[in-house]
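Fold description:
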Amino acid sequence: MPGLEGKIALVTGGSRGMGAAIAMRLAREGADVALTYVSSGDKAREVVGEIERTGRRALAISADSADAAAVRAAVEQTVAKLGRLDILVNNAGIFIAKPFEELTADDFDQMVAVNTRAAFIASQTAAAHMREGARIISIGSNLAERVPEPGTTLYSLSKAALTGFTKGLARDLGPRGITVNIVHPGSTDTDMNPADGKHAEAQRSRMAIPRYGEAGEVAGLVAWLASAESRFVTGTAFTIDGGANA
């Protein structure tokens, strides 16, 4: 894989789980990386330290993805402090699982603000600074494509919307040589959905490869999409779920 030397990346929600794995993988490929966090300041600083030990620059930015102004400011701060922006990874997300009849308007607003609107705001702000060869990559969910059980209606809605956003934005930015893609992870071993959790066995039973994914595997796919090798790939969804949706 060609490296990402000289590139500047921003990973939202990059203090833990998949976001941290993505931030560190991009740094190992040669990129300087900014990441946002909400409450995990200590973990964000740990990721920054690990990135700096690779010889790359790193920046942790406190920004709640539910706050549109904070999302815009995070992009602008990345550009101001690191010089420009070549790679945006819209990773920040929340999960609310309830029976449909118990969902509230506030649940809807919160889920869509973090999982959907933040990607729109960050991408729009970033695109104003991006040059030919830049990348926008969003992290969706395999639940955007197939919903095997009740309770995830609102989450699936918020992630499915990102697929349409990705396809539309790929058309808008393609003439500028900027690619836009989405990655749909399945069950991945993180603190949000641990491989030893109470629902883990049911999730494994739906997979062709009956194990949880690793955050580093998702990060590897993102790193490829950020690389020069993917320059003719845009408007596409990549599912990485061990065959759960096969």
About this structure: The CA atoms of residues 21 and 216 lie 6 Å apart. The radius of gyration is 17 Å. Helices lie at 17-28, 41-53, 68-82, 105-127, 153-173, 200-204, 215-226.
